[in-house]
Amino acid sequence: MTPTETVEAFIAHWNNGDMDAMYAMCADDIVWHNIPMEPIKGGAAMREAVDGFMGPVESCEWEIHSIAANGQTVLTERVDAFQLKNGGRAALPVMGTFEIDAEGRIAHWRDYFDMGQFQREFGGG
């Protein structure tokens, strides 16, 4: 699988709700950094953070608008949309950077987005 195919499959697992398959695509020592927040380090911490975030989320509908790769690094421009359990919907424009390790797993994942918009979309601001 190419690095681009890896990222596309990773996002497809989010959209399909197949979280175990999504986690399997990540290195055990992954660093996930939503840039406005503190980085999350390690697979167990990532799983805990995702579980907490997904509590009010019914489903994901991430749409990639642009994707580019340079070696093992993949850049995405996308809108991450979420159908919420309360019937609402939240959507957030995101620029993402994924670094793929020698085993073909995601070792570093950084997402850049506007925290104020995130809070408004998810009802926290």
Automatic annotation (TrEMBL):
Residue span(s) of domain Limonene-1,2-epoxide hydrolase: 3-116
Species this chain originates from: Altererythrobacter xiamenensis
A Pfam family hit: LEH
Name of the protein this chain belongs to: Limonene-1,2-epoxide hydrolase
Molecular-function GO terms, alphabetical: hydrolase activity
InterPro entries, alphabetized: LEH (IPR013100), NTF2-like_dom_sf (IPR032710)
Keywords (A to Z) from UniProt: Hydrolase
